[in-house]
Write a structure and sequence with these properties.
Blueprint lengths: L6 H9 L12 E10 L2 E11 L4 E5 L6 H9 L6 E6 L2 E2 L10 E4 L11 H11 L4 H14 L15 H13 L5 E5 L7 H18 L2 E6 L2 H7 L2 E6 L2 E6 L1 H6 L4 H6 L4 E8 L2 E4 L2 E3 L10 E6 L5 E2 L8 E13 L3 E8 L4 E7 L13 E7 L4 E3 L8
Helix pairs in contact: 1-4, 3-4, 3-5, 4-5
Bound molecules: adenosine-5'-diphosphate and magnesium ion.
């Protein structure tokens, strides 16, 4: 993305005309929302509360129902049953354009026969805003997305990143109190996508709107969200802050979907847990089962050298491979019982050579960081 010549100018364009007065953000309350296609249930009794001004992300694998839930909130899809309230108002039977939401679709859905300015001004014409006011607000919205001067361009003269920004400008131009976005960055290359993640989050904070954002990219969800709702086959498996979900995923499905992890089978006999030939301790042990699984985040696992001061769970094994990835070194290890785990450590300029493959290694994770999860396989949580 181009940066504007004068950052002060850009800030002024951003702050003044478009910022909604604070306190206008609306909460969204979804209750018992269901949708089926034939015998296939796509949304299964979904309850979801989005707080006013919150950035909430719907995260889940392809086909988990993210778009369906977002389209129901937007009004483009009629659920079979359930309720959706914006603040005090029930909207489940209200037409999309009466819901006063800003919407960004996955494929942008720009009008190819209209130029950039007419695309961005469309929601204002729909609302019969006077022409001079439309011109002013369109220009401010274009400035905001570094598209000043692009108003007369046709859509097919724009790059993917520019189209993306036109779609965003069109979504916010009428100062909606709720913004819904469906994988808006998925078509962009990695660098632009990562920059836009930060910018969209900053935009959200400036506008003070309630935002529901859909992605299947867990890192994007962690980067942008106040809270993440993880969808699994039409149900919300977990909703919490990025940190809480990452550290305490609560189920193997969520642990596998968010962040990297290895899993060890744990046997529990008389309250004593064993995994990969070691006795392990943990703050919480899943109740009532003879077995469970241990989640090992690669960056929480450390090579032990005897200087550790915390209580550690220790595992012995061998180095299988050492992979240099620039910022981190990834060691793939085989433990005493044959399980494979990854260990990731930050690199530095003066790093010693990584351990050679085949060399024995002792690794550990702090007892306080040790997470044991019920072994439900892919069962519902
Ligand atoms: P996501 O956005 O998480 O990838 P979707 O909400 O698009 O998932 O779809 C959820 C499930 O609903 C998928 O299995 C999909 O095939 C099915 N589905 C979506 N729309 C339709 C439709 N119009 N007819 C039949 N099945 C559909
Ligand atoms: Mg989708």
């Amino acid at each position: 993305m181009r940066s504007a010549a004068d950052p002060g100018e850009r800030e002024a364009a951003v702050a003044a005309p478009l910022a909604s007065p604070s306190g206008k953000a609306l909460p969204i309350a979804v209750r018992r929302l269901s949708k089926a296609y034939g015998a296939v249930s796509v949304l299964d009794d979904v309850d979801l509360d989005v707080r006013p001004g919150e950035f909430l992300t719907l995260l889940g694998p392809s086909g988990s129902g993210k778009t369906t839930l977002l389209m129901a909130i937007a009004g483009f899809l009629r659920p079979d049953k359930g309720s959706i309230r914006f603040g005090e108002r029930e909207v489940v039977r209200l037409a999309p354009h009466k819901r006063e939401i800003g919407m960004v679709f996955q494929n942008y859905a720009l009008f190819p026969h209209m130029d950039v300015a007419r695309n961005v001004g469309f929601p204002l014409r729909l609302r019969r805003v006077p022409a001079t006011e439309i011109a002013r607000r369109v220009e401010a919205a274009l400035e905001m997305f570094q598209l000043g001067g692009y108003g007369g361009r046709s859509i097919n003269q724009l790059s993917g990143g520019q189209r993306q920004r036109v779609a965003l400008a069109r979504a916010i131009v009428f100062e909606p109190r709720i913004i819904l976005m469906d994988e808006p960055l998925s078509a962009l290359d990695k660098q632009l996508r990562e920059r836009m993640q930060i910018e969209l989050r900053q935009l959200h904070d400036r506008l003070g709107t309630t935002t529901v954002y859909v992605t299947h990219d867990q890192r994007e969800a962690l980067t942008m969200s106040d809270r993440i709702a993880v969808l699994d086959r039409g149900r919300i498996a977990r909703i919490d802050t990025p940190r809480a979900i990452y550290d305490q995923p609560g189920s193997r499905f969520v642990a596998e979907f968010i962040g990297e992890s290895s899993f060890l089978d744990v046997e529990i006999v008389d309250g004593v847990c064993r995994a990969a030939g070691s006795v392990v301790r943990a703050p919480k042990i899943p109740a009532g089962q003879g077995r469970c699984v241990m989640m090992l985040r690669p960056e929480r696992l450390r090579i032990l050298d005897g200087s550790e001061t915390e209580a550690m769970n220790r595992f012995d094994g061998k180095v299988q491979s050492a992979i240099y990835q620039g910022d981190t070194l990834l060691l793939q290890l085989v433990l005493a019982d044959g399980s494979q785990v990854g260990l990731r450590m930050a690199t530095r300029g003066d790093d010693a050579e990584p351990p050679a493959s085949g060399s024995p290694i002792a690794v550990g994770i702090a007892v306080g960081d040790t997470v044991l999860l019920a072994d439900e396989g892919r069962a519902r949580t």
